[in-house]
Amino acid sequence: MAFTVYVLFSKSTQKFYCGQTDDFELRISRHNAGMVKSTKNGSPWIKIWTLNIATRTEALALERKIKKRGISRYLIDAGVEIKIEVPRIDED
User: Fold this and answer.
1) Mind listing the domains of the chain with CATH numbers?
2) What is the sign of the dihedral through the CA atoms of 2, 10, 65 and 81?
3) pLDDT digits (tens), the chain, 92 positions
4) Sheet strands (E) in 1-92
5) DSSP class per residue in 40-63
6) 3-state secondary structure (DSSP) of residue 16
């Protein structure tokens, strides 16, 4: 069974979320339905990055590594191009 380590982004909260699962499509639908406590307030969540991993042990280790490094910093270090429209804040 393969596992997926994933990074999501919420435009409404401007936050990243990292997790791992054995069913990514079900998991992201649960995030967007407000069924996950830690992401309840950020819908809609968009997929930024995924990586398939052979075992849950390896997936959990990578998830911890990403969170420890900082999600955006990890993605930059890994060479992942992040294309997100960030709302412009006009200064008066």
Assistant:
1) 3-77 (3.40.1440.10)
2) positive
3) 899 999 999 999 999 999 999 999 999 999 999 999 999 999 999 999 999 999 999 999 999 999 999 999 999 998 988 777 655 556 55
4) 3-10, 15-21, 45-53
5) GGGPSEEEEEEEEES-HHHHHHHH
6) strand
